[in-house]
Specification:
By secondary structure, the protein is α+β, with helices and mostly antiparallel strands. The protein has one domain (2-144). 36% of the residues lie in helices and 32% in strands. It has a six-stranded antiparallel beta sheet, with helices on one face. A hairpin with a 3-residue loop joins strand 3 (79-82) and strand 4.
Length: 145
Amino acid sequence: MTESLSKSGLVTKKGFAHAKLIIVIVTLGVFATLAVRASPGIMRTAYKSAIERDLYDFVKAEDLYFLFYGQYFGTTGDYIQQGDQLSGGLVTPKMPFVPSRDVRVEVTSTKEGDPKHFMVKVSHAKLDIACEYDFATRQKMEREN
């Protein structure tokens, strides 16, 4: 540290001690390490939140479609997926639903003549689990993808 006289004649200290600088660098390093180690868990939680929110939004869109047309939209194997662009057989202006990026919503089961027998699976490209929803029982299940 260097000392100098101020205009008032008082001695002032300028500069940063090397020890303080090292402490700041080490502290920042520890925080950076903790952030890097925590990020996979944070991203997993974010992907899971995305599929759960998209499932909720899709169920609401299907319920609205059912209200107007008396049946759910889509058959087994139909899907809607958001990647570089929106794709799949469930893309229609009649049902305004757009999933989050890298999320796929797929109809997994339908039964002719039974409009309540309708199941969907929502998955994320970077997640090893998926959410399934049964419209007949109104139950959500989490499964390995």
